[in-house]
Amino acid sequence: MAQTLKEKTATGMWWSALNNGTMQLLNLVIGIFLARLLTRADYGMVGVLTIFTFLAGNLQSSGFTQGLINMKHPAARDYNSVFWFNVTISAILYIILFFSAPLIADFFHEPALVDLSRFVFLAFLISSFGITQNAFMLKNMMYREMAIVSCTALLVSGIVGITHAFVYRSYWSLAWQQVVYITMMNLGRFYYVPWRPSFKIDWQPVKSMFRFSSLILLTTMLNTLSQQVLTFIFGRMFPMKEVGDYSQANKWTTMGHSLVSGTVGMVAQTVMVEAGDEQEHERRVFRKMMRFTAFLAFPAMLGLSLVSREFLLLTIGEQWLESSKLLRVLCVAGAFLPLYTVFQNLTISRGRSDMYLICSALQVLLQIAVIVAFHRLGMLTMVEAYTVFVVLWLLAWQWTAHRLIGVTLLETLRDVVPFALISAAVMTLTWLATSFITNLAVLLIVRIVIAAALYFLVMKLLKVKMLEDCIRFLKAKIRKGGAQTDK
To answer: Which of 161, 271, 439, 475 has a C-alpha 20 to 30 A away from that of 236?
Structure first.
């Protein structure tokens, strides 16, 4: 029996959440091992290259992944055209970056970056062979297979990275982990996706998608700049040890908000496209996604901010104490970033890549201006200014939602603010109730338990429909699993 859109959304959310949850758990374990084996400077070395890797990755896909997903019924020729375009662009980009490596090393005053960058950039060249397969899996909602592939790739690459770090104790461990991860992802995608590229290349599909996809490309690059500009600026202004502090804090923050963003983002565009052009239906889908995102993001990220100090000290050691201060602030920004994902997927699903581009371009320009304005006050102040800007810029994205489907600011506030206020109150009460505890391990456990219990209790007492829907869905999954076991 064919699934309804609601059932597809629920199933997609389930597998997406399971995938992202497992991924973040594995990342947590792997990250703890690597952070204990490597130094702050090691993380700084690889961290400053992230912006180049991400930008190159944006260029290689060129927005055609979203273009394929936005098509109602993409054919084999469409996938084949995008595949060869990605591979060609990636090969050209790698050659350019290979010869640019000395310039990158000079910019950051670190000669060792020449060889390191040339190796790290192999990751995006290898990934070009799997981008189209990933689009196929997203378009066909193969979330179970995507979960298996990504978790296997992370596990294998994590073992390689930890083994290398244990033996050599160098930043090359992080580089090897990235390259092995991408390679394993591609192997898994080729295993599950029935489509195969052919040498009969028709460039017409790429041409027909070019306007939409090129605007998505520019926007994605701007978003990358927005997310990585702090690391880039810090790499120029501060020693690698301090850059490593920020890189470590940013890594844990990203793991936290990606759990929510990934869960929502994996299904958002596909579901919104399938919702059709009926505005009221799309409004309901959009608002429910906003509530679901806020329901998860605020307690998760504000909770991580609450336990940031004891968490880092217990897991990766005292050498990362300075990172906890940055992590505490970044988590506040991280609580709002998943909401960006919902807004952005709305604009893409409506085919308004131009609006997506304008909003993102203004965001990057103003964000850089804010950061530069505070650069003399130190790294922590710059991060605080960045966080305030992230929160305020949601008003601009709200404007796009109002223009596209008529969602008002008041409606968005009703969907989001209650979860933000309840989460903030829960974390404040938890902090006050546990501030007398001195043992770090006890403090971490007690704060997590109290915060989770309080949040659940408040949601239950207020009879929040989002919680009821989640419980009902989980019970259905458990019953279904039990029935299959009995058979």
So the answer is: 161
